[in-house]
């Protein structure tokens, strides 16, 4: 027990001495299936960005506290930074790159533009994925409920009023 | 995060077998706490046993009118389950008071029970922590302890259990079903989590070789008079400084049954039979509530930064008892406190 909780200093040694035990996983991202040989300690977020080059999903805190990495797993928002890619063999994953269809933006994407619902934009793909999940789920109706359902997505530019307005409009449109 | 072996359990027996064969292995289900702890090098398992595909996702009626919840039911599914919303609204409310949409969508029922403390020093591997590394000392005592415990502490540890769901399950007298190499057993929620004592490294009475398979609720859900009041530093997506679960059975202005459980104040959801006894048979009155609050907090002890929690808890208990008695439970979206 004590050994398994040894301090961080030994991490580099581990990587040098442990065999690379890659695991085969079929990721189903935005409708496309990709077979990857992947180290089991690769998060879904790192697999998306570094292996599949889908960099629309952002790495913010990398600890599930900011929501920048939000993607949809079977249509439901999750933090891609807190889950391992190897655990999602064949499961339908949608990233911000998968929302537009036939050259038309998703209604939530269009509403974010129409309402100027961002400033720097770093949190935006996560905000949009959470909003798509919120509308699909169909439980949030009031502004209070939208804010509560979206509380896992932090915007340090403080675009919250416009984000809520964009979601309200997209809810009406869908 | 450290390198590790990854394997999938084929069934519960296989999970138990794999775990017994490797004492440094950890089960992973939702992973929302474990992966985070691994990123901080607080957890460094040599093997992860993936149990997320096991058939433990059912919510089923029990013969005696209760509800059996599979250990892998996601927190969001449980909170919004029609039977839970209808018959155990205290549980639904407590779950929705916790974490964020994204985390509730991944986190499992069993994993929520087994999440680790958010004590700052437990997470900081550069500091001493008896829970993380037994015998090294407690940095929270004499340190930054604003979020730490006021009840049931020891000289070794003043960490709190962070779960909201567990507070409601404790108030509702739920039981945990577990399976190990020697078979299945049940553990009452009130005995599931431990006080730190001189073994703060052990959060629960679950054996190292056991796996949680289900949580069972008894028939009585206290659907009319309940509340889950959670006080925290921001209105959403923060751990409780103090939370209060109340469930009452009221007949003609007299309290017939009472449950009072506190979160954010101890190493386990905190109940006190004497405080509940002080409510039973009494009229709905402020002095009745004040007496119960006094009893449940009579041994409360602050450590400096968290001294405020004692009065905060007293006021929160009063407010929560009034909310429950009046049938006006705290909303988890409109955060104005009624």
Helix-strand topology string of chain B: EHEHEEEHHHHHHHEEHEEEEEHHH
Rg of Cα set of chain B: 19 Å
CATH domain class name of the largest domain in chain A: Alpha Beta
- Percent of residues in helices of chain B comes to 25-40%
Q: Report strand % of chain A.
A: 5-15%
Order of neighbouring strands in the sheet with most strands of chain B: 4-5-8-6-7
Please describe the biggest sheet of chain A, giving its number of strands, its sense, and whether it closes into a barrel: 5 strands, mixed
Shape of chain A: globular
Q: From the 3D coordinates, which CATH architecture of the largest domain in chain A would you assign?
A: Roll
Output mean pLDDT of chain B: 97
Distance between the termini of chain B: 44 Å
Of all chain pairs, the largest interface belongs to: A-B, 47 and 46 residues
Largest sheet of chain B: 5 strands, antiparallel
Average of pLDDT of chain A: 91
Classify the secondary structure makeup of chain B into a structural class: alpha+beta
**Percentage of residues assigned to helices of chain A:** 25-40%
Count of domains of chain A = 2
CATH topology of the largest domain in chain A, what is it called? Answer: Ubiquitin-like (UB roll)
Please, how many helices of chain B? 13
Molecular structure report:
The complex is a heterodimer of chains A (174) and B (338). With 174 residues, chain A is of the alpha+beta class. Chain A has helices at 11-17, 44-51, 107-114, 124-137, 143-149, 160-173, and strands spanning 23-29, 32-38, 70-73, 76-79, 92-94. Chain A has a five-stranded mixed β-sheet with strand order 2-1-5-3-4, sandwiched between helices. Mean pLDDT of chain A is 91; it is low at 1-17. With 338 residues, chain B is α+β, with helices and mostly antiparallel strands. Among the domains of chain B are: 5-51, Uridine Diphospho-n-acetylenolpyruvylglucosamine Reductase, domain 2, CATH 3.30.43; 225-326, 2-Layer Sandwich (Enolase-like, domain 1), CATH 3.30.390.50. Chain B is 29% helix and 20% strand. Chain B contains 13 helices and twelve strands. In chain B, the strands form three sheets. Chain B has a five-stranded antiparallel β-sheet with strand order 4-5-8-6-7. A four-stranded antiparallel β-sheet of chain B has the order 9-10-11-12, sandwiched between helices. In chain B, strands 1-3-2 form a three-stranded parallel β-sheet, covered by helices on one side. The longest helix of chain B has 19 residues, at 308-326. The model of chain B has no long low-confidence stretch (mean pLDDT 97). Classes of the chains: A alpha+beta (174), B alpha+beta (338). Chains A and B meet through α1, β4, α4 and α5 of A and α2 and α6 of B.
């Amino acid at each position: 027990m004590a050994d398994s909780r040894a301090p961080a200093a030994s991490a580099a040694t581990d990587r040098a001495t442990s065999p690379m035990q890659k695991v085969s996983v079929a990721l189903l991202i935005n409708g496309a299936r990709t077979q990857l040989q992947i180290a089991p300690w690769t998060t879904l977020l790192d697999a998306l960005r570094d292996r599949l080059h889908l960099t629309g999903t952002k790495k913010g805190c990398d600890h599930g506290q900011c929501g920048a990495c939000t993607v949809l797993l079977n249509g439901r928002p999750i933090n891609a930074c807190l889950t391992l890619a190897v655990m999602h063999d064949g499961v339908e994953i949608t990233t911000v790159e998968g929302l537009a269809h036939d050259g038309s933006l998703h209604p939530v994407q269009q509403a974010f533009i129409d309402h100027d619902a961002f400033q720097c934009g770093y949190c935006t793909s996560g905000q949009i994925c959470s909003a798509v999940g919120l509308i699909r789920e169909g439980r949030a109706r009031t502004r209070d409920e939208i804010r509560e359902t979206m509380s896992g997505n932090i915007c340090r530019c403080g675009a919250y009023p416009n984000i809520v307005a964009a979601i309200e409009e997209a809810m009406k449109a869908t | 995060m450290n390198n590790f072996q990854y394997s999938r359990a084929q069934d519960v027996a296989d999970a138990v077998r794999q775990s017994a064969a490797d004492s440094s292995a950890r089960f992973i289900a939702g992973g929302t706490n474990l992966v985070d702890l691994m990123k901080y090098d607080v957890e460094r398992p040599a093997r992860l046993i993936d149990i997320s595909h096991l058939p433990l996702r059912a919510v089923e009626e029990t013969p005696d009118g209760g509800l059996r919840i599979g250990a892998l039911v996601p927190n969001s599914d449980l909170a919004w389950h029609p039977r839970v919303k209808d018959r155990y609204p205290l549980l639904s409310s407590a779950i929705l008071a916790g974490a964020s949409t994204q985390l509730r969508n991944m986190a499992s029922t069993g994993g929520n029970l087994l999440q680790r403390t958010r004590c700052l020093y437990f997470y900081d591997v550069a500091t001493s922590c008896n829970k993380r590394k037994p015998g090294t000392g407690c940095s929270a005592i004499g340190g930054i302890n604003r979020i730490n415990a006021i009840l049931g502490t020891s000289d070794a540890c003043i960490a709190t259990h962070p779960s909201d769901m567990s507070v409601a399950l404790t108030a509702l007298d739920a039981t945990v079903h577990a399976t190990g190499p020697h078979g299945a057993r049940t553990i009452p929620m009130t005995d599931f989590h431990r006080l730190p004592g001189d073994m703060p490294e052990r959060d629960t009475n679950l054996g190292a070789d056991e796996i949680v398979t289900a949580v069972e609720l008894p028939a009585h859900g206290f659907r009319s008079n309940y509340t889950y009041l959670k006080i925290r530093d921001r209105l959403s997506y923060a751990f409780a400084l103090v939370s209060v679960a109340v469930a009452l059975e009221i007949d003609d202005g007299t309290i017939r049954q009472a449950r009072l459980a506190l979160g954010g104040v101890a190493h386990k959801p905190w109940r006190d039979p004497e405080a509940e006894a002080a409510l039973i048979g009494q009229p709905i009155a402020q002095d009745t509530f004040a007496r119960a609050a006094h009893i449940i907090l009579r041994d409360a002890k602050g450590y400096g930064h968290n001294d405020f929690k004692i009065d905060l808890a007293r006021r929160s208990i009063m407010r929560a008892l009034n909310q429950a008695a009046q049938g006006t439970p705290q909303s988890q979206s409109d955060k104005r406190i009624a």
